[in-house]
Request: fold
Amino acid sequence: MTNLTLSTVGGDLGETVSLTEGAASAPGPDEVLVAVDAAPVNPADFLYAAGWFGVYPQVPAAMGAEGAGRVTRVGDGVDPALVGKRVIILPTFEFGTWADQVVVPAAAVIAVTERADAAQLAMLPVNPATAWALLHDYVELKPGDWVGVTLANSAVGQHVIALAKRAGLRTLAVVRREEAAQQVRERGADAVVIDGEDLAEQVARALDGQQLRLLLEGTGGADQLGRLVGSVEAGGSVVAFSAATAQPPVLPLGDLIYRGISLRSFFILTWLRETPRTELERVYNELAELIVDGVLETTVAGTYPLARYRDALTHAAGPERSGKVVFVPEHPAA
Reply:
């Protein structure tokens, strides 16, 4: 068994992570052994390794939060029919998916379609599920409603646009540069604005007298949100799903008190814990079929074997990267 392990919290991830080898572990009761076919590198992995995430690493810590693979063995108490099934691995940060094999609780895998690309499935557990939950769990939306999303060129933002379009919702995408604006236009956003001092005026023109039912906030800080929240309808909701600036989102006092705008948040690990298993299976299989249908697709910036982890992590951390970096472990011949 080969995996990438974090030895020290903080510092350069290329130096604090190392490739480790060991004997393959056998699954215990209620566990499965998965041969990992693909596992992405996410911003959350960098935050986790730095000690800035919602889960603190207990080093040595196996790295990698999500992935896709095939069940090769099951422990006692697990349906043997799961052997040979393609599964996605749900994130817990308690075991690492940057590995050629990993033992996980059976509750942390969901069997999915064989017809989708493994790399796309590997990126399904976090970002597409986040986008789905943001559109379903906070505000009752109907076709024609406007949904705003900042950090719209992020993976979550792009999936929000795709899922909203499929549901007949209209999306206002907020980005920070023209290159990103073109990217979200191609993804199908109904209106695209570029952040700046005139952001409120741009949004008002784009909405043409209408208002946002829901604003999905991924940037953080007070400036951008302060310019946007006036376009959210009274009693509407702002839901924070990220903070690219590392600053907390801040609502102007007048919008909070006098217009009743609520500020809420989403965290994937909380959603996974609180959502019933049957619902998780339904949602993830629906999303997997949307990958097959071409509705959902995440750009892959590059794929790497585990042995090239330094190159992969450097690529993933690069400011000009467009798309996800994905580990594609090599498996020994049977």
User: Anything to note?
Assistant: The mean pLDDT is 93. Residues 277-292 form the longest helix (16 residues). The chain has twelve helices and 16 strands.
